[in-house]
Specification:
Layout: H1 23-52, H2 62-70, H3 72-100, H4 104-131
Helix pairs in contact: 1-3, 3-4
Length: 151
Amino acid sequence: MMSTTIENPNYAYPARSKRGPSFEKAGWIFMRASGVVLVVLIFGHLAYNLIWTPGGISAIDFGFVGGKLADPFWRWWDVTMLWLAILHGSNGMRTIVNDYVHKPRIRQIALGAIAVAAAILILLGTLITFTFDPCPPTADPSLLPSFCADL
């Protein structure tokens, strides 16, 4: 009878002690916690935009978005949703790369690209959210939304 040796499926990573804090465990916990918070943020966002707003989806236009982003509560709500969604998705991509990319150099490049993309998206999204001005003072008044005349 011949015996067959099965290769260790965790060959890409060195064995670690099971005790103490672990980056993978923290990532696992983050995915669960951020998923729950994202569900609340997304459904709150949809409920406000589609149910509580008079006119529903047909009321969503540039003026609606400008008015919503003028309110600090909704600005922070949206930026928190953006940050969590990008971090949650990036952590998921990191897990996929760690599971399926076995060449260390390629894995390192892919993880670096994910981190850079996440950082750029968070930076640009935050910048846009907090610097958005629907009523720029130098713009042609005929091109501005109607609510800008009240300011």
